[in-house]
Amino acid sequence: MKRPILYHPDPRLKKSCAPVEDLNEDLRGLADDMLATMYDAPGVGLAAPQVGVLTRLIVLDCVKEEGEKPRPLIMFNPELVGVSDELNTYEEGCLSIPEQFADVTRPAEVEVKWIDRDGKEHFEGMDGLWATCVQHEIDHLDGKLFIDHLKPLKRQMITRKMVKFKRELARG
Asked: Per the residue annotation, which of 21, 66, 86, 137 is the catalytic one?
C-alpha cells in the first residue's frame, strides 16, 4: 500500500528515530509499503520518517539500468560501521524535497550493518550511488536532510521554495 510522503519543512523529518527492538508483522508491512511508495514516487531510497513513522527503517534500490533486475533492500537499524577517507560528490534529491537538487559530498565507500525483514544481520560494503543513498537515508533516521549539508543561504532558499510548494498544495 502506498503511503503519503511528508514534505519539508515538517517537524517529524527533524526527529531522531527509535531503534527497532521487536521485528514484527506491522514493521514488515511498513517496509513493504515503503518499497511500494518509493518505486511509485519514483525514488531510489525512502526512510520511515518520510512516511511519518519515527523508527529506524530504510528501504533502497539503486538499480537504475533498463532491464537490470531490481535489488530492493529493507534495512532495520542500519548503521555505518566504516567509511572511506575518499570522498564523492553526487547531485542529491529527496522525495520529501521534490524538484530540488544539490551537490553533496560524502564518503565514497561505506560498510553498512543492518537487520533484514527476517531478523538476519547483514554487513555489506557499498560504493557509488548505493553508498550515497544509504548515507542519505541513514541521515533521515537522525533527523538530518541532504540540505543540512549545504551552505545556509542555499538551504534557506530551498526551504522557502518548499514552504511555497506546500502552500500551493494545500490550496489544491
From this structure: 137
